[in-house]
Amino acid sequence: MKASLRARRMDRNHKRLRQQAKLSLVSLMDIFTILVFFLMVNSGDVEVLQADKDITLPDSVSEHKPDIALTIKVSSDDIIVQGRRIDRVDAVLARSTNTIEALSEELEYQASRAPALTERERQVGRSIIIMGDQQMPYRLLKRIMTTCAGSDYRDIALAVNSAVVPDTAEPQLAGGF
């Protein structure tokens, strides 16, 4: 006897459904290729300093981002270079000298470990970032900067939080040294 149309359609569907499933990798490869290019393009824009819970950075509208360099962290209690405590803030402020001897020694040690100076570094000095609390006394900042300049770290950048400037009719100026 001849099978009905419904029976033939059911047989055809059963045969089709028994086959092994196929996965098309072409679309998947396209997605991953686009994702890789997207991540490569966008990965170079982010520069984040390691946050410190003891330091509240001041806000700034500056657009210029410093290069990655040696970092001095100044909390309310300690002066820290590359994670190593150098001196206490109250002891530094109690002294009458304009330079910080322990910081100078640490900067000389860090300079001895660094590669040879480039032409730009010979002209402007080595780069350094000072990450200080917004309540840091000015005379402490001045002593740190004087010590850095005396140790040939003259390209000084101050770490700040980036503040968003609202659109206003008046232009906003960012100050610097």
Structure report:
The protein is of the alpha/beta class and 177 residues long. It has a domain at 59-162: 2-Layer Sandwich (Nucleotidyltransferase, domain 5), CATH 3.30.420. Helix content is 40%, strand content 16%. It is built from 6 helices and 7 strands. It has helices spanning 5-18, 25-42, 89-94, 101-113, 119-124, 138-150; strands spanning 59-60, 70-74, 78-81, 84-88, 127-132, 155-158, 161-162. Strands 4-3-2-5-6 form a 5-stranded mixed sheet. It has a two-stranded parallel sheet with strand order 1-7. Helix 4 (101-113) packs across helix 6 (138-150). The relative contact order is 0.15.
Brief account:
The protein is α/β, with parallel strands linked by helices and 177 residues long. It has six helices and seven strands; from the N terminus they run H-H-E-E-E-E-H-H-H-E-H-E-E. The protein has a domain at 59-162: 2-Layer Sandwich (Nucleotidyltransferase, domain 5), CATH 3.30.420.
